[in-house]
Amino acid sequence: MYDVNSEAAIREKKLVALGSIIAAIGLTLIKITVGLITGSLGILAEAAHSALDLVAAVVTYFAVRIAGKPADAEHLYGHGKVENVSALFETLLLLTTCVWIIHEAYVRLFEKIVPVDASVWAFLVMAVSIIVDISRSRALYRTAKKYKSQALEADALHFRTDIWSSCVVIFGLLCVKAGDWLPQYAFMHKADTIAAIGVSLIVVYVSIELGVRSLRALLDTAPKGMVEKIIKIVEAIPGVENIHRVRVRESGSRTFIDAHILVDGEQTLEQVHQLTDTIEKAIHNVIANGDVTVHPEPKPKKAKKL
To answer: What is the DSSP string of 221-262?
Structure first.
């Protein structure tokens, strides 16, 4: 289990987030350049996607820095929620991209004709994009999983989405090229615009999924099945008569767990303390980076028969 708030963890998360910023800058610049030269809406849509990925990567970088700060007098549970807010902000950016892409696609399909040059540069920039996106998404996802970072996971999702959308754009460019080679299939020139719509649909799907998860975390929705898992773990520990009022909330990389237990009231304070330590260790073994608080209560004594 890794300490998500250690200096090494924060440094590693910041480095991988910084790598995403550099990658997003490079991809945005080459996509805009090639998109303008070729007139490909698919590539321009990808450029807009990468530009917002750049904004999201910058937001993620600062979110990781802030989330790593220790708890203080005003933030008693730490600053982890900043990562959840960052992920929600990225969702809004992605949806904004989709509005522009769909509008421009409608214009090109029904109002004006924009020629597309499916040159070797168009295919080359998309191939480079896929290679970079695979590398960044793997690095981000590995670090996100290691430290349970929703902000880095959201960034990884962005780059992973770019992989599929880039494949869609390449397919559209191939159709345009086929229309150039075979005049009877000239209608395939529209494939680039349709590919751009495909990109936007992929982005919408990912945005909604990410937005829902971010909102659930911000609203302190308990992770599915976690309460039941905790009850099962604690009830199996000798000395625990009952567990109730189990509350779970996530804040960035940490999971805060509160639980009340019934114990034998005849035990000493030291024995009860040892029992709560055992419970906390058992939960930590299953839920990494959990912040566990156990409140022991004496079991009601049975009334004596007269």
So the answer is: PPPTTHHHHHHHHHHTSTT--EEEEEEEEEETTEEEEEEEEE
**CATH code, 226-298:** 3.30.70.1350
Rounded Cα–Cα distance for residues 95 and 253 (Å)? 25
More confident residue, 149 or 5: 149
152 close to 140: Cβ distance less than 8 angstroms:
yes
Let me know the angle formed at the C-alpha of 63 by 128 and 70, rounded to the nearest 5 degrees: 140
Runs of H (alpha helix) within 112-248: 120-147, 150-181, 191-218, 226-235
According to DSSP, the β-strands at 254-263 and 242-251 are: antiparallel
Partnered with residue 251 across adjacent β-strands are 254
Which range among 72-86, 125-139, 212-226, 237-251 shows the weakest confidence by mean pLDDT?
72-86
160 alpha-carbon distance from chain centroid = 11
CA-to-CA separations, 252 to 13, 213, 264, 302, in angstroms, rounded = 13, 12, 36, 44
Cα distances from 140 to residues 31, 82, 168, 205, 264, in angstroms, run: 22, 18, 23, 20, 48
- Name residue 56's amino acid: A
CATH homologous superfamily of domain 7-218? Cation efflux protein transmembrane domain (1.20.1510.10)
Amino acid at 266: E
- Which sequence spans correspond to the domains of the chain? 7-218, 226-298
Write out pLDDT tens, residues 212-263.
877 887 887 777 888 888 888 888 888 888 888 888 887 766 788 899 988 8
- Whether residue 68 contacts residue 10, with contact meaning beta carbons closer than 8 Å, is answered with yes
Give CA–CA dist 50/126, Å, rounded: 12
Residue 145 has pLDDT above 50, yes or no: yes
